[in-house]
Structure formats: C-alpha cells, structure tokens
Design brief:
This protein is an all-alpha fold and 63 residues long. The chain has helices at residues 17-28, 43-53. The longest helix is centred in the middle third of the chain and has 12 residues, at 17-28.
Length: 63
Amino acid sequence: MQQLQMEITHTYREANQLGDYITSIALEQDNPVHYHSFQDLPTKGRKILNSDKSQIPILRIRN
C-alpha cells in the first residue's frame, strides 16, 4: 500500500494573482476566453507570471 504525505498551508491572495487576474477577465467577457500559451496571455498576465517565476516578493501596503 502506498503512503501519502500531505501538508496544508494557508496561501495569501497574492500567491494566486494570475488566477485572480484571469478570473476577472473571464467574468467581464460574454464568450469563453482561452489561453494556450504564455504568448496568448495579456501583457499584465505575462508580467504577473514572470514576477512569480522570478520569485519577486509582492508587498502589501496598508494605509
């Protein structure tokens, strides 16, 4: 029998910026939107993905 090890952690919203961004685009559209490659993403989506890939921290500033 195979053993599985799991770890559950809290993820701040900032960790899912690309998902939040694509969801907001989808909600604004009347027709389905499909992105099949990095180049298909809008510029803002590519920037979010590149920042995540580069492990650039996202700072949350509260007033």
